[in-house]
Amino acid sequence: MRSTQLSMDTLDRAQERFIDTLNQMDMTQANTMPKPIIKSVTWLIWHTARMLDLQISELNGSAPLWTSEGWNDKFSLDLPDDTQDYKHTPEEAAKVVVSDKQLLVNYLDAAVKLTKTYLGQVEDDELEEIIDESWTPAVTRQARIVSSIDDAAMHSGQAVYTRRLVIGK
Questions:
Q1: What's the confidence (pLDDT) of residue 1?
Q2: What is the pTM of this model?
């Protein structure tokens, strides 16, 4: 088994959890922030797709799907393309409103495919390469991958919690 297979399997589970959660909601419910500091299911899925897109695009040296495939135009959010969504205030997060469930699912799917393709190609000896020296300790390619997959898993669990707050099940 390749060393990255566990990451791919974990990402599959996070994606399944997101889709299952979204399928139990209508878009009004999915766009609801139940409390100002609790992000909507829509934001959690969008942010996870975007985070995977940006992180993996940087690792593989490609342009992010967000702009290269026109997802920014498809979503047409009232946010700049370079928004730092991990720092969103409740007001900024509330701007992530999506009317088309399939659009959200498709962007998540594209970001997951990008990630899994990269994980299937990266060589084990590349995983220890330092890619960011601005942190202490310096960040390796493996640490960035683990962080991204962990973020997806964490946010998919938050989506389940948010759904329960919004619709009670």
A1: 56
A2: 0.95
